[in-house]
Amino acid sequence: GSVIVDANSPTLSSVAAADGTYYVGQNIDITVTWSETVTKTDTPTLTLSNGATATYNSGDGSAAFVFRYTVAEGDTASADLSVSSYSGTITDTAGNAAAAASGDLGSVIVDGDAPDFVSVAASDGSYKEDDNIDITVTWDEAVTVTDTPTLTLSNGATATYQSGDGSAAFV
């Protein structure tokens, strides 16, 4: 019979993530692909250019591992996220260590600063039943509306969103 010796380490083929802007609480799935099937013996992580860490999520026994990074409040913003390195043990079936994982992820933007409430205001005055009271809620950055937001007032009544989607002030 013949003996085959595999002395070649798996080389890095690519690192990739879906282009987009990611906000607090959103996941960025990063796919790292090597030239051959690899396995892990612990929980590998990726070090990202903004100082955050992506943790192994899936792919053991394949050529592509998926790592997940969930953007958290206070994470350093990044206009061009990239992978710096990985930690952990990733090898091919012969035990050769996988090549370093690094590279640009494309147009992946991280916004780790959730909008902060700034103020709420209404015009002073006397109001009677069925009068509209415009209440302006202000944030420190532009925000987007989903569904129909409401405010619960101190008298138990509610105020319903009217306008301001995509701006820093809602009425």
Q: How are the SSEs ordered, and which strands pair?
A:
Elements: E1 12-16, E2 20-23, E3 27-40, E4 45-48, E5 53-58, E6 62-70, E7 82-87, E8 90-91, E9 103-104, E10 108-111, E11 117-122, E12 135-139, E13 150-152, E14 158-160, E15 169-170
Parallel strand pairs: 2-10
Antiparallel strand pairs: 1-3, 3-6, 3-8, 4-5, 4-7, 5-6, 7-9, 11-12, 12-15, 13-14
Helix content: under 10%
- Mean pLDDT, all residues: 92
Note the total helix count. Answer: 0
- Computed over alpha carbons, the radius of gyration is 25 Å
Distance between the termini: 80 Å
Major pleated sheet: 8 strands, antiparallel
Extended strand count: 15
N-to-C series of helices and strands = EEEEEEEEEEEEEEE
Silhouette? rod-shaped
Query: Regions with pLDDT < 50 over 5+ consecutive residues?
Result: none
Strand content: 35-45%
Q: Class by helix and strand content?
A: mainly beta
Structure at a glance:
With 171 residues, this protein is mostly beta strands.
Can you walk through the features of this model?
There is one protein chain. It is built from no helices and 15 strands. The strands form 4 sheets. Strands 1, 3, 4, 5, 6, 7, 8 and 9 form an 8-stranded antiparallel beta sheet that branches. A 3-stranded antiparallel beta sheet has the order 11-12-15, with no helix packed on it. It has a two-stranded parallel ribbon with strand order 2-10. The relative contact order is 0.19. By secondary structure, it is mainly beta. It is rod-shaped. The model has no long low-confidence stretch (mean pLDDT 92). 0% of the residues lie in helices and 44% in strands.
